[in-house]
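Hi R.,

As promised, here are both runs. First protein below:
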Amino acid sequence: MSIRKWSVGLLAGAAALALATGVQAQQQKPQHGGTLEVATMFATLSALSWDPYDWNWKLNHDTGQFYEQLIVGDLDKSQKKGGKYAFVIDAFLAPDAQRGELAESWKEEGNTVTFTLRKGVMFPEKPGVMAAREMTADDVVFSYTRLRSSPKYIGTYYDFVEKVEAKDKYTVVYTFKEFNAEWDYRLAWGFYSVITPKEVVDAGPGNWKNVNGTGPFMLTDFVQGNSNTYSRNPVYWGKETIDGAEYKLPFVDKMVYRTIKDETTQHAALRTAKIDMLELINARYVPELKKNVPDLKWNKWLSVLGSFMAMRNDVKPFNDLRVRRALNMAINKKEIIAAHYSGEAELYAYPMHPDWAGYFEPLDKLPAEARELFEYNPDKAKKLLAEAGYPKGFTFTMEYCACAPDHVELAPLLAAYLEAVGVKAELKPMEYSAFLSGMTTKKHAAGYLMNSSHTNPTTSIRKSFVSGQTWNPSMHTDAEFDAKMDEVYRTRDETKRQAMLRELTAKVVADAPYIWLPTPYVYTAWWPWVKNYNGELSVGSLRPGPIYARIWVDQELKKKMGH
């Protein structure tokens, strides 16, 4: 673009902004129609699977527009509506932040939970796959049974469940062998609890052309590495009440996920309004974007992805605690915050997220052996390496995903710090499918730089540090630790669970299965014509679908602003 055209564009934008206040005042009534274009917090990754049977972590993010669950986050409790919840945490819904989705209500009694389903919720017609029909209790039982039978089933995940029964067309009863503090997450709003009709499974659930659910949108196009396109479900049951008036959902006719692997291209798409929202922006780019595009609206939030380099505790030299502690002390984490994250990061915010009141314990409250791992001390690192039998250091392979811009830059920085204490990290960038497969099959390298979802207070510890779990890249194994985690799940009293989890967290941090890395603050930005939105990201487990369904696009304002 020429300088003259760019200047004219800026002037037009300024003039449009001057009109915006008056236009917005006239356009607060919700509108139906239009298209919402989004680069999500996982904009660099295309859909990984359409089939819940694959037990894929990203499934809700891509299918949550059409596959619904029993429980969902209650957006009436959002900060936008005067509530206390920001709904940016990836997979944590406090009990008072939950509402029924496919379930109208539920009741917990002893070791049973009874769900009463909504009547009249329809699967839309899908030519060649299924006729339109009502969703019933049989669909809930079918979906659970199929998920549990998957060879990719995460060990112990449903083991507390004795049986699931459809008592009648609209009643589902789960009977437990024993209480599990995560029952609602695992059965009703988690990563692996979507309701899939049998007809889709019979047609081939891994083919995007066959998928079909009860949600506000239908998947109508998918281009690998480019876009997911979702269109309005004409028989969707949901409604939204705004200023006393009830509106049928979704508001937009179409929404599109854009897959954009390069950060610079993402920012260009936002600046030129090729996308309406960009959900994840590194803090270092924010000042320039705010300067160049002053119209944008913003939300700042602490990342819900913990960052670390897992060290395989089952192989030399990382089976030695002294080595793992040494590598932590060799990394100048405060300097990383200042230089790499422009000062916008927390030194310690994983595996517990600071937003989890009662579960999170700040760094200065942890035992000395844990606090020490966050202080830069290369001299002590060298001493510990010598004590462990590595006075001249050693060489290891560090794998990381080329899909993560942050880690592409961070990996060589970590390698430089380690080299200063005699340890050579041979960097190995990988495409995401191979990177993920290496971990899930336990064939990954001794060093494994990754992000992992905080999830929720219990899962964050279980999935990452309990023996044999799929998402345990350090291969951490401690029978006593595992037993205490089992006890956490059996404990009904939340205050007691919080104390137990604080203790387990302090212990695992000191055991240093990872090089603990800072957790950055990141930003979401959107254009002012995106209405009924305040930066919310998830109302389940990485599930934004119900959020998008409630957004409308102010077409007149968009036009007035030159787009």
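And here is the second one, sequence first, then its structure tokens:
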Amino acid sequence: MARIVSRLDVRGTDFAANREAMLTSLEEIDGLHAAVVGGGGSGGTNPAKDAASVAKLRSRGKLLPRERIGLLLDRGSAFLELSPLAGWGTDDPLGGGLVTGIGTVNGVQCLISANDPTVKGGAQGQASVAKGLRAMEIARVNRLPLISLTESAGADLPKQAEIFVPGGASFKNLTRLSADGIPTITLVFGSSTAGGAYVPGMSDYVVLQKDAARVYLGGPPLVKMAIDEDADEESLGGAEMHARVSGLADYLAADEPDALRIGREIVGHLNWRRQGPGPTRASVPPAYDEDELLGIASADVRVPFEVREVIARIVDGSEFEEFKPLYGTTLVTGWAHLGGHPIGILANNGILFSEEAEKGAQFIQLCERHEVSILFVQNITGFMVGTRYEQGGIIKDGAKLINAVSNSTVPHLTLMVGASYGAGNYGMSGRSYDPRFVFTWPNHRIAVMGPKQLGGVLEIVARQRTEATGQVFDATAFAPMREAFESQVEAQSTALYATGRLWDDGIIDPRDTRTVLDLALQAIHSAPVQGSNSYGVFRM
């Protein structure tokens, strides 16, 4: 493979402006991450309350969720946290009161889920339910053992109407993971109440912490109300009771470190084997500095930039074998390695025309034939519109690309480094097309189309309706409505808005892109990588 020759002007004014804008965005993201890691759930809006919640947990001799995860993981190994800012921009706690991610336990890459008891006692709201379900889906499709570090008060009762129906899928998914031969392990450190009791109840392995774990469908107050029985917590759902009497507990741990030690030992005896092909060559760092990724993406997503400069700083040795470089030039396609794993890449260098759609569909079929995972790098404003392009068949050609993406069975990774508008999101394997992972840069924007375009469409439609009734359209009077709409779309298009609603698996620092994608590829290759020759009808 040939090495990409970088033409990035790292001393230019555009690079400097882009870098400064990216660093400013990262400062906000880092602040939010720090608030989530600190605990409490307010996202930094109420530091005193957060500190009190953490202090209360500490006074009970308990660890924070990420501290538990740190003791569970192999020493010095990485933890790829997923959806850390779930719930941003909603009335749910920032982070959802749940930590999820991928890490190595006793040499086995696992999906780890940990309740944060400093956030409403670990109670589950809408964001935490969605985040937990996403984690289970990642465990299923990538064939990763699931370890749940549980301490939860159950449902956030004031929000029961939002979570009761979707939350039930958590228990279904646990049993389906087990049925698929994917181990499920639950370590309980505190309360596991009501629906939360089914998490250990439906897991393959259960570890309860002595004098701390409480697992029951109904706590003492509910039992009193339901059947007028006075029951103490230990007799009703204590760890020793479940270890000696009910049989729910498979292991009784002396304390938190002991529970985590037992969890590691369980993983060690699973005899777990990865079924993916793994790396085909040694991992080689890129030839260019990863820090330069900060200045490549335009601060304004309407301004194009050269996507090969991104590829050059994330793939092994900056080597890239480009496919059809002279045809359909606004879509870059080709083969590379990342962390030693072979990958196919589709990356946007502009709007999609018919040629780009056909080129992309063909390239995906080749990746399917050779059973190579695909990385989609999105910076796309959509498919081209206009009479010339409609008559030229842009609909049926775009459908070929979406057909190929939809029916592709090799794993997809999606990286969003700029705009993601309209059907371009679909043609480049957006969230609704089930990529294994979706990660975004802070400058990312996602919507049906850009705010200015949407505002303009709204005004044209309003003008046509007014004039159809024989009246005169007042553009001046309409202007405040258009401006308000554009502001709303802008606010709902940001990377933070998207990640808060789990449209992706996390906003990442561009400098971490290679590391994040490498960890994701390792997770993907825990499962077989299998291509398909089965597609819907391609309209010719």
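A quick note on the second one: The chain has a mean pLDDT of 93. Let me know what you think.

Best,
J.
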